[in-house]
């Protein structure tokens, strides 16, 4: 009788131990599966971030250059002036292929090590809209080259003082916010070593 009871206890104990082992194995397998899925989603979001950011704007302006070499009150007919029509296409780009991001899938951590600086490119075009030459006071080739160079510098300054860099910056931050949000959703941590970390701190927390 005692031997039979002992066998029953051993069988029950084996069932219990087997059940516990099965639960632990399933839990471990499930955790690994979830971690693999999470890592794929994170990597997909990083691939989206890897695309180049390009912001473009077109600019145009008229510029008048007056050469008042003589008193305009009495000898204005000797003076000359020129009106330029200046256009420019401007681009601000972030070459995101240069970014450095390390994904630690074991510890569920994203290390943002480096993000590229924005690059501004301006492609100006200068045309003579109108030109008035004074009596015995014509425009030389040097005059025209000089005034066109000034026109290009003027449009360059206008572009630099515009909001195009801010628009590109905001687009970068928006893209980073998407990564931060996904990381937070799946309980991943982000270690951001770039200058943009402060702007994204509220999302991180």
Q: What do these coordinates show?
A:
With 205 residues, this protein is of the alpha+beta class. It has one domain (2-204). Helix content is 50%, strand content 29%. It has five helices and six strands, in the order H-E-H-E-E-E-E-H-H-E-H. The protein has helices at residues 2-49, 72-75, 141-160, 164-185, 197-204; strands at 53-67, 80-94, 100-104, 109-114, 119-132, 189-192. The chain has a three-stranded antiparallel sheet with strand order 1-2-5. The protein has a three-stranded mixed sheet with strand order 3-4-6, with helices on one face. A hairpin with a 4-residue loop joins strand 3 and strand 4. Helix 1 runs antiparallel to helix 4 and helix 4 (164-185) packs parallel to helix 5. The two termini are 64 Å apart. Residues 22-34 have low confidence and may be disordered.
TL;DR of this structure?
This protein is 50% helix and 29% strand. It has one domain (2-204).
List the helices and strands and how they pair.
Blueprint: H1 2-49, E1 53-67, H2 72-75, E2 80-94, E3 100-104, E4 109-114, E5 119-132, H3 141-160, H4 164-185, E6 189-192, H5 197-204
Parallel strand pairs: 4-6
Antiparallel strand pairs: 1-2, 2-5, 3-4
Helix pairs in contact: 1-4, 4-5
Protein name: DUF4230 domain-containing protein
Transmembrane segments: 6-26
InterPro entries: DUF4230
Question: Given the helix and strand composition, which structural class is it?
Answer: alpha+beta
Helix coverage percent of residues?
A: 40-55%
Number of domains: 1
Strand order of the largest sheet: 1-2-5
- By DSSP, the count of extended strands is 6
**Helix-strand topology string:** HEHEEEEHHEH
**Rg over C-alpha atoms, rounded to the nearest angstrom:** 34 Å
Task: Tell me the fraction of residues in β-strands, as a range.
Answer: 25-35%
Number of separate helices: 5
User: What's the pLDDT, averaged over the residues?
Assistant: 81
Morphology:
rod-shaped
Give a short account of the largest sheet: 3 strands, antiparallel
Note poorly predicted spans.
22-34
What's the N-to-C terminus distance?
64 Å
